[in-house]
Amino acid sequence: MLVERIGNTPLVRLERISRGAVPAGVEVWAKLESFNPGGSVKDRAAWAILRDAEARGVTNKRLLDSSSGNTGIAYGMICAARGHRLTLCLPKNANLERKKILRAYGVALVETDPLEGSDGAIRAARAMVEAEPETYHYLDQYSNDENWRAHLATTAPEILRDTAGRVTHWVAGLGTTGTFVGTSRGLKAINPAIRCISVQPSGPFHGLEGLKHLPSALVPRIYDATLVDENLEAPTEAAYALMRRLALEEGILVGPSSGAALWGALNVASRLSSGVVVTLFPDSGERYLSEAHLWP
Ligand code: PMP
C-alpha cells in the first residue's frame, strides 16, 4: 500500500556546505522529506489525520482543510488512493505546480485572497464548515493533534535511530508547527538534553513558502512554546541563497523552507565546538521550478 511508504526518509550528512562554516567537531545532517510518496514532509501529518478520520467514521462526509499546498497534495494523494472526497482552500497565488498536482488528484479547490495568505485560506475553510456542517468534515491541520503526533511517532524515532542516539541539536522551520512540536517532544522524551531550535521567517511578508511568521499570524493551536530552547529568524534572501547552494554543492534540490532550515542549522552549528545538528528539508525544488526569481 502506498501509505506504508510514508516516512523512513534518508538522513544525509552535509559535509561540503558545512566545511569552513562550522567547527571540525560539529556534524550537520538533514532529513530529505521529498522521498515521501507525496513529495513532502506533510505526508506524515496528512496520513495520521486521515487515518484518525477513517477510524472515527467521518470520511462519509466531504473532507475539508486549508493548505498552502503540501498538506493538500498529501491529502489529495491519500484521498485518491482510499476513495475519499476532498475540498481544499488555498491562497490564489499558490504556484502552478501545486494547483496542477492537486487537480490531477481530483481535489476540489477553493482559491482564497492572496493578500491574506494561508490565514485567508484558514478563515475560508472555517466559514464553509460553519455554513454547511452536514456536508463537510473539517480536518483542521493547525489544531489537529494527529499532526504533531505523526512526528512524535515517526520523525523523532527515525532521527534517534539514524544518528545512533548522537543527535544533540534539532532545528526545524515552523508552519503548522507539527514537525517541530512532535519531533521535539519525541526527542526530549528520550534525551531531555537535546536542544530544540525553531526557525521562522524574519517578517510577515516573506517568500518562505510553508513557514509562518508567528508574531503576525494566526498561531496554530498545536504550537507549544515550552519546547523552544531558541528561536531564530531566517532572512528570505539568505534562505534562498542556501537553497541554491544545496543544489550546486550537495546535489540536493529543495524548496525555500529547506534553505531557511539550513540557515538555522548552520547558525547553531557555527556556535558549537562539538555536536550533531539535525534539520529537515520539507520538500523538493521541483515543486517551485515555475518561480523564476528563485533560480539562476
Ligand atoms: N516547509 C514547507 C514547504 C511546508 O509545506 C511546510 C508545511 N506547512 C513546512 C515547511 C512546515 O511544516 P509544519 O507544518 O509541520 O510546521
Question: Mind explaining what this structure looks like?
Answer:
This protein is an alpha/beta fold. It folds into two domains: 2-35 and 151-294, Rossmann fold, CATH 3.40.50.1100; 42-138, Rossmann fold (3-Layer(aba) Sandwich). 39% of the residues lie in helices and 18% in strands. It contains nine helices and ten strands. The strands form two sheets. A six-stranded mixed sheet has the order 1-2-10-7-8-9. β3, α3 and β4 (86-91) form a beta-alpha-beta unit. It is globular, with a radius of gyration of 18 Å. It starts with 10 loop residues before the first strand and ends in a 15-residue tail after the last strand. The mean pLDDT is 97.
The gross shape turns out to be globular
Bound molecules: 4'-deoxy-4'-aminopyridoxal-5'-phosphate
Q: Could you list the spans in which at least 5 consecutive residues all have pLDDT below 50?
A: none
CATH topology of the largest domain: Rossmann fold
What's the count of strands? 10
Strand content: 15-25%
CATH architecture of the largest domain: 3-Layer(aba) Sandwich
Biggest sheet layout:
6 strands, mixed
Please compute the radius of gyration using only Cα atoms. 18 Å
Main-sheet strand order equals 1-2-10-7-8-9
Bin the helical content.
Answer: 25-40%
